[in-house]
Design a protein that fits this description.
The protein is of the alpha/beta class. Helix content is 40%, strand content 12%. The radius of gyration is 20 Å and the shape is globular. This is ADP-ribosylation factor-like protein 15 isoform X5.
């Protein structure tokens, strides 16, 4: 195919096919949550990777004090919690979420809170999590979404991430970034 034909094909695609889709903005999002909440499994499945060989990141809770090092430059937050965890672990997750929502580098960012493991018998409903975590009073005036999730329902997880992207785009429009 000669140079003229290549040029013709590009013009044809642009005119008839409306050209390539416009580039989408990229966002830096930090994903945090306690050990066993399902962060790695959810993100692996979201990226269409196998979850067979995922090794639990046991001991990661001991590095919570270093989470803030990952906050700088973030434009959004995904907080994953195990909705079927013990009362003690749920209380720790509640404390960590409250800390994140009030952290100076995160307090103005959109949050996606995933109540993971909704497929387990002991799972608390999204409404129970919302009430227990006191999200209404704590997150008033902030952009946040609380959704149930499970690695077996990636459609719902993708919809949750689409909602987060919408919040990120709204924030961009407010600040005039787009």
């Amino acid at each position: 195919m000669g140079p003229t034909n290549v040029y013709f094909m590009k013009c044809f695609r642009t005119l008839c096919c409306k050209g390539p889709p416009p580039p989408r903005p990229e966002y830096d999002v930090v994903c945090i949550g306690l050990t066993g909440s399902g962060k790695t499994s959810l993100l692996s499945r979201l990226c269409s990777e196998a979850t067979d060989n995922i090794v639990p990141t046991t001991g990661a809770d001991s590095i919570k004090k270093y989470w803030s090092r990952y906050y700088q430059g973030s434009q959004g937050v995904v907080f994953v919690l195990d909705s079927a965890s013990s009362e003690e672990d749920l209380e720790v997750a509640r404390t960590e979420l409250h800390s994140a929502l009030q952290h100076p580098q995160l307090c103005t960012l959109p949050f996606l809170i995933l109540a993971n493991h909704q497929d387990k018998p002991a799972a608390r409903s999204v409404q129970e999590i919302k009430k227990y975590f006191e999200l209404e009073p704590l997150a008033r005036g902030k952009s946040w979404i609380l959704e149930g999730s499970t690695v077996d329902n990636m459609t719902a997880v993708k919809e949750s991430f689409a909602q987060l992207i919408h919040l990120l785009e709204e924030k961009d429009q407010e600040t005039g970034r787009i």
